[in-house]
Backbone:
């Protein structure tokens, strides 16, 4: 079919990420860069021209990247794009990261593997919120080479004094983050100044153009000379042979080498390096995905780290970490996750939030939660001792990632070191179930869930909950009810009715509900929970399975019912702080279900609730097609 | 390690992650150059075996050479081949342009196979450089119920950690070739000596650069009749790989509409 000749060996492309505030000109820069270096396939240029004309615009270089219809219509780049690009003999891949705030996770997706970054700053506007945010991320994901492109200098009339002043303020900002930029390049992407060719409008600037600066970015340094780290990815048993597979993250292996296997501290020798259709190997180096046999034939687990006896990683059950938080809801201490580190997974709980970065000035402050897309330092309590290396840019060391119960990535946690147990704090190490939510749901025939019934005293919460409980039980569903009075008789008997105690009451009810829902049960919580903040707390504790149900009975009706005589007692002053009389009730604005009880009997209202619950916790039909 | 070694090592890592995390798992084998490279990488990852089935979603309109190739290499490579067919074009969304509508048959055929075998993971050989919409993909790309791709709500993916949400009605598309370029594929084919259907090589001044159904794929002008000549041609080519695929040119968003609905 063809003649085989050894193909010319090539260096791998160097990934370069381009970041910066929205509208500071990232996409224009990339379009210009590709055009000036003649890196565009013919089809792409035609597409841009056609798209621009269709919209009645002059040629827009940024359209090159906005390759999805929806992006163009919204006028922002949705996701990162990778574009191969060549300077002389050197290959690059440009990773475009969007500036639009809500798309932070896309930026990380693109930027995490970059060797260098170009931070684009509008020289006239200076650093903005996303300039700070992106710079912070460059630090947290460990990018070592940062080139700052002072863009749109045409708007400053190419004036040296103005541009230099702007440069100084950006430099000061980066210094706070311990980022030492490789270079500042004054440029205009739109006009082409100092991108691929030297601008004749800034004779005062003697430094390199952007392409010259890129060409000087050092090639990724070899990780092969560092001490070995080989995380076990899997163990196969093919025929009679047991093979351990994984990617060498750093260092090298050689047949006969002694390695320690994980925390069990078993020592074994590398007996063989196995492969198919590859020349036999005695040695393998960082970056290679290998298959090895061990002597003696021990059986490691996925996640076990193979390392040299003399060069062990750190070990600890409390770990300090930086955090970039990607979930749409804030993070609070006490939340539990799986920590993934290379191929290992550990159950962790956020033991404390030690500081949160204030983005306006990049200073660190104590706080009790990390906002969406926030940055922080936290302490993680691990359910067992784990092995790790502290985060080190340019290596895979300490690249921790938090995943939630649905195996979704919610944050990055570059691990800093082992945390001391501080006197007076709880050294708790919660363990997680190994039975998945989905396995439980399949066994029970329905999912778990928490139906949080809020309403005035006397609205009918407990009565409806008990009626619904009976109906759900008779359908074969696993259901339980937590109602306010029952909780206060037992679990919460130490609590009174002060604001703090009420909140604690809500917190406990939510925590118990979460445990029950995690075990696959349908949980009905009947609790006045009068404030929006109360219910928000409960939602945060419970998570995705939280469903707010408003038992909507007008106050006069509740008072006329007064089943426990409490309204009367409150009116006569025998009790105070009674919701609906002398304490406020904040009705939910958008409950997932509103149950109006006026003029309806209990079984009918309960049926509505049961219908809602049954639909919410139902398993979708397998293989449903839209 | 050179660039091909790095791409190979990364693809093997991805295939091993998929094999570990997604069960049942299957690989799409379209019989084209990319999917042959993918089968080859699986044999590298699993030491000569492919420990999961390969699926051919048959539109019934492939070139005869492709069916012949399939039968020959299923045996030679000892593959566990699953075959699925596609609904008639009349059953497909009539608002799609004609070629896209024809291509959408494959999407429906694939969906039926995913349901039949209750697959948690499907390995597919798409690459970022093929088409702008594919550049947006993740390595592990969750598909919701109905197999829809939500391009606006993709999970973060970094530091080689892949999201593996496991919910009913959902599966994950795994893309081990995402980082490869067309020329990398050809250089790897040359280095490894991976067999291909002859349609990729020039006859009478024309060859196929990308292979789809007979009626919606056109050959390009080319004199490249060996792998080395194809590589030489690509090094100077400035036209895009899918230029011969009719559906890409019908309307600006045809390809994206196909992708969102589950097309590869």
Residues:
């Amino acid at each position: 079919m063809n003649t085989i000749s050894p193909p010319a060996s090539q260096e791998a492309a160097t990934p370069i990420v381009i970041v910066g505030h929205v509208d500071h000109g990232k996409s224009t820069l990339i379009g210009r860069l590709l055009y000036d270096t003649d890196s565009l396939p013919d089809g792409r240029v035609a597409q841009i021209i056609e798209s621009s004309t269709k919209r009645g615009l002059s040629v827009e270089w940024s359209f090159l990247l906005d390759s999805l219809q929806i992006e163009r219509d919204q006028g922002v780049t949705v996701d990162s794009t990778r574009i191969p690009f060549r300077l002389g003999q050197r290959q690059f891949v440009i990773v475009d990261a969007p500036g639009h705030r809500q798309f932070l996770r896309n930026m990380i997706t693109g930027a995490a593997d970059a060797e260098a970054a170009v931070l684009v700053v509008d020289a006239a506007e200076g650093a903005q919120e996303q300039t700070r945010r992106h710079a912070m991320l460059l630090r947290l994901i460990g990018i070592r080479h940062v080139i700052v492109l002072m863009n749109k200098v045409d708007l400053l009339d190419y004036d040296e004094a103005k541009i230099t002043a702007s440069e100084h303020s950006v430099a000061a900002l980066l210094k706070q983050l311990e980022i030492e930029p490789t270079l500042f390049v004054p440029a205009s992407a739109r006009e082409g100044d100092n991108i691929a060719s030297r601008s004749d409008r800034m004779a005062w600037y003697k430094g390199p153009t952007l392409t010259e600066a890129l060409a000087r970015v050092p090639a990724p340094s070899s990780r092969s000379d560092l001490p070995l780290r080989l995380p076990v990815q899997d163990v196969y048993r093919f025929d009679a042979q047991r093979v351990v597979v994984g990617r060498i993250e750093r260092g090298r292996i050689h047949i006969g080498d002694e390695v320690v296997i994980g925390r069990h501290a078993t020592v074994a020798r590398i007996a063989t390096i196995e492969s198919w259709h590859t020349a036999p190997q005695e040695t393998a180096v960082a970056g290679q995905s290998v298959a090895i046999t061990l002597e003696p034939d021990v059986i490691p687990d996925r996640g076990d780290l193979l390392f040299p006896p003399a060069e062990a990683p750190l070990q600890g059950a409390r770990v300090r970490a930086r955090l970039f938080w990607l979930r749409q809801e804030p993070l609070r201490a006490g939340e539990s996750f799986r920590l993934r580190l290379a191929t290992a997974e550990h159950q962790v709980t956020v033991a404390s939030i030690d500081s949160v970065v204030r983005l306006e000035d990049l200073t660190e402050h104590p706080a009790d939660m990390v906002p969406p897309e926030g940055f922080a330092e936290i302490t993680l309590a691990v359910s067992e001792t784990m092995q790790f290396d502290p985060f080190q840019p340019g290596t895979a060391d300490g690249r921790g990632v938090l995943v939630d119960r649905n195996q979704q990535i919610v944050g990055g946690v570059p691990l800093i070191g082992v945390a001391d147990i501080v006197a007076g704090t709880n050294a708790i190490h919660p363990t997680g179930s190994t039975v998945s939510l989905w396995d439980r749901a399949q066994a029970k025939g329905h999912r778990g869930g928490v139906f949080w019934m809020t309403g005035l005293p006397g609205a009918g919460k407990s009565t409806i909950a008990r009626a619904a409980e009976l109906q759900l039980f008779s359908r074969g569903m696993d259901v339980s009810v937590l109602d306010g009075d029952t909780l206060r008789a037992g679990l919460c008997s130490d609590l009174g009715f002060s604001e703090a105690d009420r909140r604690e009451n809500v917190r406990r009810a939510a925590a118990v509900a979460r445990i029950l829902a995690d075990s696959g049960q349908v949980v009905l919580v009947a609790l006045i929970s009068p404030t929006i903040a109360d219910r928000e707390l409960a939602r945060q504790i419970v998570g995705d399975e939280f469903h707010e149900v408003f038992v909507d009975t007008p106050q006069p009706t509740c008072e006329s019912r007064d089943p426990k005589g409490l309204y009367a007692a409150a009116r006569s002053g025998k009790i105070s702080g009674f919701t609906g009389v002398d304490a406020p009730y904040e009705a939910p604005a958008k409950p997932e279900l509103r149950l109006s009880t006026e003029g309806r009997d209990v079984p009918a209202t309960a049926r509505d609730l049961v219908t809602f619950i049954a639909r919410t916790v139902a398993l979708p039909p397998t293989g449903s097609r839209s | 390690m050179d660039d091909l070694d790095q791409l190979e090592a990364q693809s093997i890592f991805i295939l091993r992650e998929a094999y570990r995390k997604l069960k049942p798992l299957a690989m799409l084998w379209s019989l084209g150059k990319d999917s042959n490279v993918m089968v080859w990488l699986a044999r590298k990852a699993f030491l000569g075996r492919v420990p999961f089935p390969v699926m051919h979603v048959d539109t019934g309109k492939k070139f005869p050479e492709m069916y012949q190739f399939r039968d020959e290499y299923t045996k030679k490579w000892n593959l566990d081949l699953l075959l699925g067919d596609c609904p008639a074009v009349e059953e497909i969304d009539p608002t799609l342009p004609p070629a896209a509508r024809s291509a959408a048959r494959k999407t429906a055929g694939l969906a039926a196979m995913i349901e039949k075998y209750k697959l948690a993971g499907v390995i597919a050989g798409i690459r970022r450089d093929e088409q702008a919409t594919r550049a947006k993909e993740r390595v592990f790309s969750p598909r919701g119920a109905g197999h829809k791709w939500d391009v606006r709500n993709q999970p973060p993916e970094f530091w080689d950690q892949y999201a593996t949400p496991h919910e009913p009605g959902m599966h994950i598309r795994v893309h081990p070739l995402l980082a490869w370029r067309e020329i990398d594929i050809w250089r790897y084919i040359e280095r490894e000596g991976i067999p291909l259907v002859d349609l990729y090589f020039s006859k009478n001044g024309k060859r196929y650069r990308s292979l789809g159904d007979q009626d919606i794929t056109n050959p390009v002008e080319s004199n490249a009749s060996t792998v080395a000549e194809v590589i030489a041609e690509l090094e100077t080519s400035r036209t895009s790989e899918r230029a011969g695929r009719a559906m890409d040119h019908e309307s600006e968003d045809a390809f994206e509409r196909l992708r969102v609905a589950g097309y590869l």
Q: What stands out?
A: Chain B has a mean pLDDT of 86. Residues 23 and 109 of chain B are 20 Å apart (CA to CA). The beta strands of chain B are 25-28, 54-58, 81-85, 121-123, 140-143, 171-174, 206-207, 220-221.
